Amino acid sequence: MKSFISILLSIPVYVVTFSQVPKNIITEHFTNTVCSICASKNPQLNDNLSDNPSVLRISYHPSSPYASCILNQHNVLGNDTRTNAYNIYGGTPRIVIQGDVQSPSVNFSSTSLFDAYQNESTFVTIDVTLDTVSVQDSIKVIVKTTLVVPIPAGGEVYSLYSGIAEDTIFYNAPNGENKHINVFRKALNGNSGTTINLPSTVGDFLVNEFIVEKDSDWNISRVFAYALIQKGSNMEVEQVGSSTPIFENMTLSVEDEKDDTMELVLINNQEELNIKTKKFREYSYYSLYNFYGQLLLSGLHLNNYSSVSISSLPPGGYVLKVEDKSKVTSQKFLKLN
Questions:
Q1: Which stretches of 41-82 are assigned E, i.e. beta strand?
Q2: 195: which strand partners?
Q3: SS3 call for 259
Q4: For the sheet containing 262-267, what is the strand order?
Q5: Are 158 and 232 in contact (CB under 8 A)?
């Protein structure tokens, strides 16, 4: 695979007021498909992240303690380098929140797991987009970094780390896990990232472009890109951004809304969604997304029927997707209450 990076400085933009922006949260999840402890703890993290849909999770699969992990073998160097960056190579599962390494004994299901990282602000924004049209057999990732307030004094050095991930991989792993979420596939600007020279003038922005060849092992419709800026002194995440999955721009836009293989029915004052399908395998899966491409809910879809509580979701438009190993269908719906 080949990739390259170009950095451009924009013409300054006039800014009326200086105001910091919310700091997005990322949880880097280090796991392994042969690890039995991962199989027991990861569902707790999955449930916790479902309750915190604004938190981005990226799952890395280091080669230790189990080098036979198939998701590690896809990109051993990339997975291991990111694990070593936090000095946690050798044991799974582990999580790192905002660059802050959590104890091996941290409770993945704790309702306060992300509390210390909420409501923080920062001086920079990151916008990540994908382009699969203008390049052949490749994906172009565009990372736009904008300075919204002056950089804090102190001479801190910042680094940019950007990658490609798949939002869901269905694989019956040796440890019993059969669904793997936001799986890291490839780093775009080196496995350790690169130093970033942030703009010095408020309103200016940098554009980093990466081109990566499509890989036959990827479910290309599920690929998305992400990027984070970290402090060089302590790995603290200053800001993070991610694109929508490619399927948001491809599959769903051409999906036949009248496809009779799936029927969605809102009941109980729109607090519950009934999902009825035809001709799917006994064990299939549903995934519910908002129109920004964020995965909000997911689960097993057994015997072509599921009933899903959506009482916690605000009014708005959503996409419900059902798939098994041989086919996939999706449908948009509107929640009014």
A1: 56-60
A2: 159
A3: coil
A4: 262-267, 272-277, 305-309, 295-302, 283-290, 316-323, 328-335
A5: yes
Question: Could you give the CA distance from residue 222 to residue 115 in angstroms, rounded to a whole number?
Answer: 30
Query: Mean pLDDT throughout 78-99?
Result: 97
**What domains does the chain contain, in order, with CATH numbers?**
1-244 (2.60.40.10), 255-335 (2.60.40.3080)
The DSSP bridge pattern shows strands 124-131 and 26-30 to be: unpaired
Contacts 24+ apart (CB under 8 A), 248-252: 248/289, 248/293, 248/319, 249/130, 249/132, 250/132, 250/221, 251/221, 251/328, 251/330, 252/319, 252/321, 252/330, 252/332
Helices and strands in the chain: count of H runs, count of E runs: 5, 22
What are the phi and psi torsion angles at 17 (to 5°)?
A: -130, 155
Is 335 a residue whose pLDDT tops 60? yes
State the CB neighbour count (10 A cutoff) for residue 145.
24
Element (H, E) at 49: helix 36-50
Name the phi and psi angles at 240, rounded to 5.
Answer: -145, 150
- Distances, alpha carbon 241 to alpha carbons 24, 77, 115, 215, 299, in Å: 7, 23, 20, 23, 25
pLDDT in tens, 4-32: 454 444 444 444 455 889 999 999 999 99
- What global pTM score does this model have? 0.72
**Residue 109 pLDDT more than 80?**
yes
Q: Distance between the two ends of the chain, CA-based, in angstroms? A: 47
Work out the number of other CB atoms within 10 angstroms of the CB of residue 148. Answer: 18
Which position has the token pair 């010095």?
A: 200
* 35 neighbors 175 (Cβ within 8 angstroms): yes
Does residue 50 sit in helix, strand or coil? Answer: helix
